[in-house]
Amino acid sequence: MHELAITQGILDIAVKEATSLGKKSVTRITIKNGVFSGMVPECIQEYYDILSEGTIAEHARLVFEKIPGIIHCEVCGTDSELDRFRLRCPKCGENRVSLVSGRELYVDSMEVEDGD
User: Fold this and answer.
1) Which of 14, 50, 89, 103 could form a disulfide with 73 if both were Cys (CB 3.0 to 4.6 A apart)?
2) Average pLDDT for 67-94
3) How far is C-alpha 39 from the geometric centre of its chain's CA atoms?
4) Any long-range contacts for 17-20 (C-beta under 8 Å, 24+ apart)?
5) In this predicted structure, what is the pLDDT of residue 115?
């Protein structure tokens, strides 16, 4: 259910930015989504289709770009992509790692059309 609030936020951002620029419509919204954000793109899309009805962003295409999970090893200093089933540094084998990327979810860019 978190997707509903997140989707409303995405729509609010798109409408506010396009309106402030005097644009006629939003045609595309690119969303960066970390693999550990907990957000499901299909759910966001479904909510977006409902919430955006009647707005200048109604027909915008949502494009999701995945951000991988990156861990940092506190022992050897290596950054590497997280293996979901193994929370260990692939270089030295230590398990003293922290997640530095992969929880993000944000609007990265938008495409808009000018008003007449």
Assistant:
1) 89
2) 89
3) 8
4) 17/110, 18/56, 18/57, 18/110, 18/112, 19/56
5) 67
